[in-house]
């Protein structure tokens, strides 16, 4: 079989159920998978099945979110004691919020750094999806790299899932670079989005490969929604802003390397660039979505660097069936590198991420509904926003048919502080916060981003807070009142 | 005069009052000065004097805080329309909090990056304190580098204050490195705290030097207080923790490059290392305080890299009078480099910074009293904490004779999120938050860091919040009640 090219490993081929037996109660397990792409599929399913009969619990680390309802199956089977660093599953979310699964919400660039420093327990075993194992016994990932390389390096044993559903031509797409150990760490040599600095496969001692499982199951399609009037409005405001930046001489017509968070709004913004005047664009992002390939097809995007490819059903066959068409314009990197502060700062990324809510001073909540309930996790937004050339956060100005304003007096949870947020955009407009003091930020945000139904109440809050004083004026008795109203009456404001 | 070694510049020597006339109403002015060290002194004083008769307003950018009551004088004279990126003056603080001065509170590594990208208005004029101007017309800074190099490079005109009160032997201490422009920026080549990567003086076109003012006024002495029982307790807990890290094999006996924020607590912690078992220590910090030199004298510290030297009156004559004794163990860098995320992440800094308050989930407020009133600014704490090997925050568990608990249900302002905080220390004990979920963090913090008077009420809040649920359990109606009590009754809890 040309997918396992080191013959000595052929006797490691076994069923998923047998391989799953290598995972024992109490273990820490590192699995491939990033934004529902390239996750190991059969072994976690087998593990969940076994756990239904014979209870066991593990700490599960991944790159980011898993597809194929794996987090749901593992949660329902009671397998997850601890989970990091990101997830998007509604069943797991419920378990996190009722306190039955301990979720460690991390900057996506930091998990393997903490492992490398032994600040987190190293994985006992890694489960990595691959398109092939090379002649040297090295692992060629599939549609994501995520944390797979470091998990495989750190784990004592590795289970490889060879997924026949993936195009073997994915080989050559990956660039595996692992930072050297401190105190003799050297600079990450990456100075351009298209530069290759590593190896095409994950170099490990093949003796660590304890099992090989052959699978044939596709990635889950992305759940991105098509652009609507509001997301189109957000895209339009942002493109006008970029045009003004070019006119002001702060960017060229190539903009800068673009990063777009996962999800419908960021995808819509990227789609908006198709009909823009900008040319020869590049991406340095985590996830490459449909919009990446739409931009390539439109001749707008010269190169895209990511850690995963997550496509809709429509786009999937199209891209992976014609991979040669795209291959020289793509690279997939470990998430430590795709999100690395050193590289983000050096390249001058334009980071576009989605906010759950933001407040009149520009603090952003990306994670916690009502200050308490985890939605997904901070993901890579902090990796990018802190060091970006432009840290942009986007959201629709209202939610739940107007019951909720996405702009509030004080956010109920802070993921990105006022110091790290440059630009806020809703379908109402764009607030440019660069170089502004808090009172000035509030004026720009209330004027530009707030839905008309909430503008007067926010202005009133701000005016009364200013009368009381402070660098960042607030009325502590009222600061959370909109969230309390929502919790107690189902609306932020009495109608 | 050997202090101005380019003879053509001698005719630029003038009085401070004449030089100050170069600063016009509405200008943006970049001045030297970082942690009350190396600030231009005579020109801002002359500017304040002039403004009392002839009102004018400027935007003032510095490295960080100024000494010699300059911010007070400039505020009282009505000179400051806008001020960035940091300050510590009580008069200016009042003006910031009543809204009469617009203060832009920034990560100290980011100001010049935003200038370089034209996201802030470039300084019209720079005012830089120097020990000398070289034969090439380059500027040799004094006791701080701060943002002086980039201000001098960006400004159209430069006023140099040659301060005769500084030891001319400071020349050779500085290492001026300026990152190259995007999109062709290269890695910062620094891989060791003691490495020199730049030039000993600020290279500018000497034709930009519009005025030279000769001064003779020392830096203000630091206001650091000697260690007390509480700061000693904090130091003791931290040293025990470091010992355990060494035992666990996560650090060597040399620890890692240390960063310590300005102020009495961080200084006391560093002093605590004198009697520790650790050897061959190094610092990669912003400000070098008395403790740095105490550690060198004790044979504990092999090298210290900073952006400024700020000493007590006692230590000042001692260090600067015997500079040869220390010079090969010191380097002063631009604050963009001393605080650069790329370097901080590469070197694996142990960052020790002071919190104003933190909450049971480990979010840290470094800046805002009662969520509204600015104290000083975030300074470099965010530059270090986000990318440090260990992000440590320290504070005394109570303030104002027990009216205030430094540990609260929810912080009233967030500067450092749960994602960026590894270790919290008060005199009560140390909470190691690495790898913990929020509910686990709360247990560690309540058990270890809280003053006994506040432990039961915090535990009660946490228990009731957990009963309600959520990944980060909170009761929004009570979350800020301690701050509201303080504001309204002078105490966080009824006594």
Automatic annotation (TrEMBL), chains A, B:
Ranges of residues in domain Acetyl-CoA hydrolase/transferase N-terminal: 11-213
Gene Ontology MF, one: acetate CoA-transferase activity
Domain of life: Bacteria
One Gene Ontology term from the biological process aspect of the record: acetate metabolic process
Alphabetic keyword roster: Hydrolase, Transferase
Residues annotated as the enzyme's active site: 286
Assigned EC number: 3.1.2.-
Binding of CoA, residues: 376, 380, 400
Pfam families reported for this sequence: AcetylCoA_hyd_C, AcetylCoA_hydro
Acetyl-CoA hydrolase/transferase C-terminal domain boundaries: 319-461
Stated family: Belongs to the acetyl-CoA hydrolase/transferase family.
PANTHER family per the UniProt record, alphabetical: ACETYL-COA HYDROLASE
The protein, known as: Putative acetyl-CoA hydrolase/transferase
Organism this protein belongs to: Pseudomonas marincola
Lineage: Bacteria, Pseudomonadati, Pseudomonadota, Gammaproteobacteria, Pseudomonadales
């Amino acid at each position: 079989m040309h997918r396992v090219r080191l013959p000595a490993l052929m006797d490691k081929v076994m069923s998923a159920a047998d391989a799953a037996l290598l995972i024992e109660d109490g273990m820490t397990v590192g699995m491939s998978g990033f934004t529902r792409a390239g996750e190991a599929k059969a072994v976690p399913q087998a593990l969940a099945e076994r756990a239904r009969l014979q209870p066991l619990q593990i700490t599960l680390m991944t790159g980011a979110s898993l597809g194929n309802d794996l987090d749901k199956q593992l949660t329902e089977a009671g397998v997850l004691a601890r989970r990091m660093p990101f997830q998007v599953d509604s069943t797991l979310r419920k378990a996190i919020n009722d306190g039955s699964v301990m979720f460690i919400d991390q900057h996506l660039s930091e998990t393997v750094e903490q492992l490398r420093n032994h600040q987190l327990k190293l994985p006992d075993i890694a489960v990595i999806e691959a398109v092939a194992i090379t002649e040297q016994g090295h692992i060629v990932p599939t549609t994501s790299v995520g944390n797979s390389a470091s998990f495989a390096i750190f784990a004592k044993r590795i289970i490889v899932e060879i997924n026949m559903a993936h195009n073997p031509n994915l080989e050559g797409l990956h660039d595996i670079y692992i930072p050297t150990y401190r105190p003799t760490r050297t600079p990450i040599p990456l100075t351009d989005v298209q530069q290759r600095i590593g190896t095409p496969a994950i170099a490990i001692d093949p003796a660590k490969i304890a099992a090989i499982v052959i699978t044939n199951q596709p990635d889950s399609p992305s759940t991105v929604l098509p652009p609507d009037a509001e997301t189109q409005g957000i895209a339009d405001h942002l493109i006008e802003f970029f045009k003004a930046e070019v006119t002001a001489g702060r960017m060229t017509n190539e903009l800068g390397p673009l990063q777009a968070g996962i999800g419908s709004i960021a995808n819509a913004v990227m789609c908006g660039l198709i009909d823009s005047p900008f040319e020869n664009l590049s991406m340095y992002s985590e996830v490459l979505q449909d919009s990446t390939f739409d931009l390539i097809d439109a001749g707008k995007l010269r190169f895209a660097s990511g850690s995963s490819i997550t496509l809709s059903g429509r786009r999937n066959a199209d891209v992976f069936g014609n991979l040669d068409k795209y291959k020289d314009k793509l690279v997939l990197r470990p998430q430590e590198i795709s999100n690395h502060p050193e590289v983000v700062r050096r390249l001058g990324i334009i980071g576009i991420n989605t906010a759950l809510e933001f407040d009149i001073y520009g603090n952003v909540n990306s994670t916690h509904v009502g200050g308490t309930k985890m939605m997904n996790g901070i993901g890579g937004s902090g990796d990018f926003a802190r060091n970006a050339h432009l840290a942009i956060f986007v959201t629709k100005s209202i939610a739940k048919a107007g019951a909720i304003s996405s702009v509030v007096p004080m956010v109920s949870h802070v993921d990105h502080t006022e110091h790290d947020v440059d630009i806020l955009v809703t379908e109402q407009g764009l607030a440019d916060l660069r170089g502004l003091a808090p009172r000035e930020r509030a004026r720009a945000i209330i004027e530009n981003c707030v839905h008309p139904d909430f503008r007067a109440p926010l202005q009133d809050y701000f005016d009364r807070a200013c009368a009381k004083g402070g660098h960042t004026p607030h009325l502590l008795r009222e600061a959370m009142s909109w969230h309390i109203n929502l919790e107690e009456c189902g609306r932020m404001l009495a109608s």
